[in-house]
From TrEMBL:
This is Uncharacterized protein. Gene3D superfamilies: 1.20.920.20. It comes from the Eukaryota.
Length: 210
């Protein structure tokens, strides 16, 4: 194949951004000794970026934060964290930070001691603030029954919370501050902070912020 045809093929492959076509064009140019080093290097860099973007997209779709974190490190190591992958990395970092933030809030709830949980359940006529916070967490995010709330939280996924559901919970919880809840029950305050964290996360995601 003539040198000019191979170079045209390489240019077309770069324009189309098809990884298989681009890989083939690069290899053909190398084998034929066509093109200068700069052309080949640019094409190889573009191919690597395309493949990294595809790899990151797959990890984002499965929400595999370990895989996402690994790809972020790989991209940063290659110096692609500015253009050409700046925007993709912002989205990827948001996903990782979101999961870390929710995991920390969930951990606080799951590590509440039995005495605190029993205390919240023991009220025959709980203060209104405690009743509404407790009712909101149980009705909106978990099931009833002994240990039901904490057991459900272990597999809780904020991605399954509908925006309308989060809005209703916010309407209830906005009546109180964390200090007001804490004054009644430290345990309820932990649930309150977790629930508000979930609400904020759902609203942010719904607005396209991560």
């Amino acid at each position: 194949m003539a040198s000019s045809m191979l170079l045209d093929k390489l240019k077309k492959a770069r324009r189309l951004k098809d990884p298989q076509f681009l890989d083939m064009a690069i290899n053909e140019c190398k084998e034929a000794g066509v093109g200068n080093d700069e052309d080949i290097t640019k094409a190889e860099t573009q191919l690597r970026v395309i493949r990294l973007k595809q790899k990151l997209q797959r990890a984002m779709q499965t929400k595999n934060t370990d895989a996402i974190s690994g790809i972020i490190a790989e991209v940063e190591g290659l110096g692609f964290d500015k253009p050409p992958m700046y925007h993709e990395l912002i989205a990827a970092r948001n996903v990782v930070e979101r999961k870390k933030r929710l995991a920390a809030l969930k951990h606080d709830v799951l590590t509440l001691d039995r005495q605190t949980m029993s205390e919240m359940r023991s009220y025959n006529r709980p203060p209104k603030v405690l009743h509404e916070v407790w009712k909101t967490c149980r009705a909106r995010y978990a099931q009833n029954g002994r240990h039901g709330l904490q057991m459900r939280l272990m597999t809780f996924d904020a991605n399954n919370v509908e925006p309308e559901q989060a809005a209703r919970c916010r309407e209830i919880l906005d009546k109180y501050t964390v200090l007001e809840v804490q004054a009644v029950s430290a345990g309820a305050a932990t649930f309150y902070v977790w629930a508000r964290g979930v609400i904020d996360d759902v609203e942010k995601k719904n607005q396209g912020g991560g």
